[in-house]
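[Primary structure, fold]
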Amino acid sequence: MTDPAARIDPAAADGSAAERLQRAVDAVNGVVLGKPEAVHLAFSALLAGGHLLIEDLPGVGKTTLAQAMAIVTGGSWQRIQFTSDLLPADILGVSIWRRADETFEFRPGPVFANVVLADEINRATPRTQSALLEAMAERQVSVDGSTHPLPRPFFVIATQNPLDLVGTYPLPDSQLDRFLLRIGLGYPDRAEERRLLREPDRRDLLEALPTCLDDSDVRCLMDRARDVHLSEPVVDYLQALIQATREHPSLRAGLSPRATLALAATARAHALLDGRDHVLPDDVKRVFPALATHRVQVRAESEAPADVIARILERTPIS
């Protein structure tokens, strides 16, 4: 397995952009300690043109990772704290009547940014959640009959706590599908937690983070990720995994064709981050759990989707 913290080869993409991307990855790993695989997946979601859902216990670094990603990738960014009284207009924007010339002027909301941090997304009502998720899917906002395109890149990082059900509105499955990847962070190991005790506060480290990329760099790398080669044997393996979800007796339904395309795009981005111009089966294996687990439903409550996906990975041979 390739080390997720391995250096990115500048020859795999535009040299300067690739070098700055590596600095961005290193900078985030310097703040989010001991989670190189999660950081690797977060950057894979960005370069694949998708969105990221970070789901875990409070206090393990979800918001820190999201903020670090926003800072190092440059461009404009906004943080939206989701609450029960948040309205769609608070996210999308509103049309204001201008008495002077008797016209409506659109005032864009915080969603008009390159990186949007949706903190505790499951605390907002379903109507407000849907407003953001529609923008994520369509890459545009419609207000009062007018359509307003969102900037490119447009990357949403949402956080939620899976165990705090009081006063929350869990995302339905159809809306979970709008997130390319869902990851968790978990507790740090003993050595990394000791570093947390000895190092400066994470907020101070975030303030000192450099901006390593700009939006043109990110667009360049996203375009390059789409050109990463996907060989026929890798396509065979990818399709075998997808088909296994559709035939597994423990799952109510398998992954959709949209998920198939998402898996290919994420594997390409993952390969680019590892400095390659071609996808290996290992790229598919490493992104598959984060892409598939939140898209499937188990028949029995005693089974966890993550366990079923792990068994599928274990039993599906690489051709």
User: Anything to note?
Assistant: Residues 15-31 form the longest helix (17 residues). Residues 31 and 202 are 7 Å apart (CA to CA). The chain has two domains: 14-227, 228-319. The radius of gyration is 20 Å.
